[in-house]
Every structure is written in structure tokens, then in C-alpha cells.
Amino acid sequence: MDTPPHSKSPLAPSPITDPSTLNDTSSLLAVKATSADTYDHGPRLSEDDYIQLADLPLSNIDPNYPKLLLIMSSVVMMIIITALTVFLLIINPLPLIITTGFIALTILVAALVIKLIHLKANKIAYGLFKHEMVLREGLFWVSTTALPYTRLQHVNLSQGPAERRFNLVTLKCFSAGSGLAEIDLPGLNADLAENLRQHLLSQAAASHQLPATKLNTREHSTSVDDPTPAIERSQQDNYNG
Question: What letter would DSSP give residue 174?
């Protein structure tokens, strides 16, 4: 007995057999994926638009910190000079003219070192900006470090006995994936340092939440703006699978 032909349901999806249609569909999907992942760089800046590091408005540290280093370095140098004098005059005596010249040279070098330490402490400056914190330090070799809030993970305040005497603390900022402090800022007033710490932590928290919010918004807009009908996407997935 002859079997009657099966009637084709009008709702059944028709298989995609046209190669040109498949190529067009793949191209459309590739363009959509590329446009969704494209980063908007904005207009290109000229060299005149670059921000000069020397023009950054930075703040100086507490003036008590250079005084503290001046006192500490002077005490250390006095101990070294005293020990050297005792060694040259009593333990291993040398001719007086040689001993006097050697001690005078040591005093001169010690005074130069103390002055350089004091000048270097006065050169420390920092600044908090919209997206990052900047630290500048150095006397002859100047170093400028910028730490974006998106990389900031932890902020620590430390205070030694000498710093406690002058109400000073050291602020240390740690970045992601680094065991050492990326920014080590000494010589801050204790009250100001606590305010800076709270501000940095709040900025870091806000910066870490922003990328996740943008990602969720982009995924939502991509799913809403996708003009491909559900049946066509199902056919494409079945063909690709």
C-alpha cells in the first residue's frame, strides 16, 4: 500500500541550505560582536594637550617631617663620629695630624649627608586627583608614581616612636597583585592621613564597582537591541551546533 506523503507543517523551521545566506548571517554576527567589543578611544590628543608632570598641583608633606629626619640623622652621625674618634685616639692611636684630618673629613661628610637627607625630605609631594593618586620624590633622580584607584586594594597607616612624638604617620598604598607598597608616603599629619585613607578607600570601592556596572549595562543593551528573531537565532544555533 502506498504511503501518503507527509504534509509539511507551516510552523516547522526550514533548514538553511543556501551558502550565501550562511555567509551573510556569519558576517552579520561578526560585525555585531566586533561593534559590541569596540572601545571608544575618543579624539586623539596632540603633544600640546599632554599634561606635564611638572605642572601637576601637588601638596607638600608636614614640615615637621624634615625636622624629624634632621634630628635623627644628626644623632646617628654624632654617634658614628664619637665612635670613630674613640677608635682613632684610644684603641688604635695614629699620629695626631692624621687623626685630626680624618675626623674633620668625617664631620664634613656627615654634614653633607645630613643636608642631603633634609633636602630630599622637603622634595616629597603628593596629590589626589579624580582617577589616581600621584607621589613625587627624589632630589637628583626625581620619581613620579601614579596609582589609579582601580588598582588600589589596601591602604595602611604606620607610626613609629619618633613619628608619634611629632604626630606624624606614614601612608602606604598597596595595588593588586603586589606584596610591596606601590606608594610609600611619609610625613603626613595623623589627622590628615586618616582622612586621606578613608577617601582613597571610598574612591577605590567606587572604581571597582564601575566596570561591573558598565559590563551589565552593555550586556543588557546588546540583548535588547539584537534585531535577530528568536526562530532565526535558533536555526543558526542548530546549524552551528
Answer: E
pLDDT tens-digit profile of 24-54? Answer: 555 555 555 555 556 677 788 777 777 776 6
The counts of H helices and E strands in the chain are 6, 7
Q: What is the CA radius of gyration of the chain?
A: 34
Quick one: how far is CA 207 from the chain centroid?
12
DSSP 85-136: HHIIIIIS---HHHHHHHHHHHHHHHHHHHHHHHHHHHT-EEEE-SSEEEEE
- Dig out the grid coordinates for 151 from the structure: 588598582
Distances (CA, A) of 51 to 57, 142, 209: 11, 17, 27
Q: How many residues does the chain have?
A: 241
pTM value is 0.64
Q: Which letter does DSSP use for residue 43 in this model?
A: S
Continuous segment of H or E residues that includes residue 186: strand 183-189
Residue 194, phi then psi, degrees to nearest 5: -65, -40
